[in-house]
Predict the structure of O-succinylbenzoate--CoA ligase.
Amino acid sequence: MIRRLRAVDGAHAATVHVALREALAGGDAIVPTAGAVGQKPVAQTLPDRVDKRVALVVQTSGSTGHSKAVALSSDALLAGAAASESALGGPGQWLLALPAHYIAGINVLTRSITAGTDPVIYDAPRFDPVEFALAAQRMDAALRFTSLVPTQLARLLAADQTLEVLRRFDRILVGGQATPQPLLARAIEAGLNVTRTYGSSETAGGCVYDGIALAGVGIEIVDGEVQLSGPVLAEGYLGDPERTESAFELRDGTRFYRTGDTGEIVDGVLRVTGRLDDVIVTGGLKVSLGAVERIVRSISGQTEAVVVSVEHDQWGEVPVVVTTVPIGLAAVRAAVAAEERPEARPHRVIVIDELPLLASRKPDRRAIRAIAEGSARS
């Protein structure tokens, strides 16, 4: 059994909302397209028919250079929405402040559909805290939710006039990338109800809240890698059976998604520690860029800093910090050395006016690494 796959302009969230409602009800499957720089609209490369189970195709962000077309069923999307609603205390109204071609943005629309509420849509090209606050003031339901990435939360906290509006949200989900601990502490101190989410397009979005799996979701650590199971898993990667087989595994009758993230479970709580593929070899020793970045982001003012690697004549590869907030190299190296081996200490700090972002508003690590490499050659 097959059904039609049609492209929907992801720049218009209201259009995606209507099309998604129809897809979840058994209509045409949809693929919200993105016009992000450096990304080819996925609709140009996908077939016009998909398996009957597929309701949605999402192009992953490509933040590490590997963009994929993730096929999700109605069952997976609705299971994620139901589990989220249970964890949040019931159905409510959502404010959409993320792109509608990004799984976290799509989830806001899915939850609105299942809750029977109209989302407030804020889809300006650039995120503005004051405009976000004005959009939030249009919400009129008893329970109010929104979903943000850490960069957005940081900018909202920096704008004092938005705090009162933020306190009106019953829950603010923050995900898409690791949330720096200082940023989380500032949000809690400001009286915000913040929940860190963990998941991906392959798991129909966030399925672990504050380290605890949502109902029906399983977490296992296999050889240091975080693996997830449950009804939220994607069907696989459209048109790429080899990649699907590599990422999804049937084990003892249960299907798992290999996240590629490293982590541990402590007292029943998942702690993600980095990426299997972000390990570099410097001076013959392995260093996790994710671990270094976590430490750097714990330094005051550095919650948006990014750590990438550049080639080095003597050491092979070395960590480099790219940030918008000036900080001395000595301070960064001391902070990293306090928690990691000496080889993990960054070799440079590069200060730029603005970090390149993907359409998902995650850091564009390829572009950032190019900046770091260019600076190293200059």
